[in-house]
Amino acid sequence: MEQTKQELVIILPEGMKDVPVRIVRDDQSDELNIKIVNLTETRKEKSPSTEKQHVLIWHQNEYEHLSLDAIMWIEANSSYCCIHATENRKFTMSYPLARIEERLPKSQFIRIQRSYLVNIEHVKKLAGQSLIIGNHILKIGEGYKEEVLNRFIFLGVRGSQPREAKNVK
């Protein structure tokens, strides 16, 4: 007789995690050591990410595939946007920056001023009031500065001296 791999899953409410479980098969009784599994985490591991990682950009009468990781920054210019990607690729489209920003993951992209949306993975440096991406300097708008700075962890001294030390005499 061919054996098939079978599994019995018992789902207990949160409050019953310490209740012993006993399995009875015919006239045999077995105590079980139970491994508690967080069902939510198990589902996350097994299911693919729901966050999309690729875009199709309308370019020269067809859609061109681009990984989100390849987008360095997006620049608004009047009613057009220019997507600056790795390998010196640029895509110009008649599509508002606000609509693009809505569609991209906020964990990866941040608005640094009215005209720029930046992939934080491509930020090389923060210099004064600007971010350096590749060989390009993109100025951070005054209204966006606090939000941009809050997206990074700063190690070492920021400014002439640490904030805590300023009021010490």
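Above is the first protein from milestone M3; the second protein from the same milestone is given next.
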Amino acid sequence: MNAGAAGTPAAGALRTLRYAALLATYVQSVNVSIPNAVLRFIQASTSMADDQAGWIFTSYLAASAISMPVASWLAARFGVKTMYQAALILFIVGLWIATCTTTPLEFMGARIIQGVAAGIIAPLSLSIALDTLPPAQRPTFGVPYGAAVLLGIVSGPAIGGLIAEYHGWHTVFYSSIPVAAVIVGVAQCSLERKKAPTTPPFDFFGYGTFTVGMIMLQVLLDRGERMEWFESREIWIEAMTSTLAFYLFFTHVLTAKTHFLGKHLFKDRNYVLSTILFFAFGFVLLPTLALTSPMLDEILGYPPITTGGMTIPRGVGLVGTFLLMTRMPPLIDNRLVIASGVAVVIYANWLMLGYSPLMDWTPVAVAGFVQGVGMGMLMPSITKMAFSTLSPTFRPEGTGLFNLARVYGSTLGIAIVQACFYNNTQAMHLALASHLTPYRSAVHSVTASTPLQAVGALNEMITGQAAFIAVVDQFKILMLAMVVVIPLVVFLRKPGPAN
């Protein structure tokens, strides 16, 4: 009885810690997309150009991708509790700085700080939550953890739009600070301060070259349009640095015995193909939000609360289908589910090609919901296939690379569609303006007190039309990304009974 009495508070503390870890996972995920519905207000407050808006997302994602692989090593070196609390405090600092910024560079710096902290919070939250569970229950914890990640990403714009509508965009970031502070307090009270007896080896050379290569590639994609691509010396330097870094990384992989990404992972066909599919999943997941919200907010002029609300059907479809998929009978061939999920996403993006400036909210809600259903089918089925034939010994390492593929898919996807968007906007603006004559009805529909104002109003109308066409064209890129990877499903192997 004494043991039971003594064990009850401990069990309650572990449960509280587990919920706090899930909440931390949700908070760092929601801050990926929470600025979506308030982009034009952030741009106005920081004098941010239109072609810099994508950096709001890519800076956060790229920074989290950099810190994520080294999180476990830092926890072993300095202790889980120390690193977890430090990351949460750093996250709070990044949120606070974001509310004080007045220039684009300051705001990007705040997002980078948030991203670095988020890259540590996410894996450590999973590790902490798993430690609070008996071994028999740990394999099923991926369901609530995955749901927390997805729910955070898809609910961010709705929450941001609702808060900004009544309290301004700064409150969007302020709102996460007390939540993160509570999690720090829970960790202080419930998380044991322990450190690994020895610090595990870590391939810093491989990690460093891979990270430099990805950073330079990301900067190249983000800055290319503004710097006129290879007309700029800066772009040449970034391209050559990225190429050299990747050359050193792959040489290191082929020659070293131990390295950042183990060769054994690439010997499992299902794992490699599933990781590529998960990269494509990330390539579509966040770039769709990065295109839809500005389309509604800046081009069609919807208020923040409406812009955020338009993401709710997509979130309902995604999270609801994800939870249903966890109860799928094991007799169903997972390859068929993956193929069906990709087909549904392709169909959803095809629906998005039919968007029109004259539409109401219905097409956006329907296409978003359909895409959410497809994505909800894909995430659990791809994850299951990736680890179905991988040795349990390699699963911790494989999990890190697998999640990294989704993050890099999102950050590179956003950079690519943003670069193509602004290039297409300029091309469409020229095409539309070239067909404008004094006899066009559009010319006479513009009313202004002076000829100069009339020209300005006409140019603004053409720019809006060009931007809308360019946005729709980017949904075609996302659709083609899924079309390209669907043949990979044919090469997946059906796991044996033992798996």
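Note on the second protein: The chain has three domains: 8-197, 204-259, 264-434+443-499.
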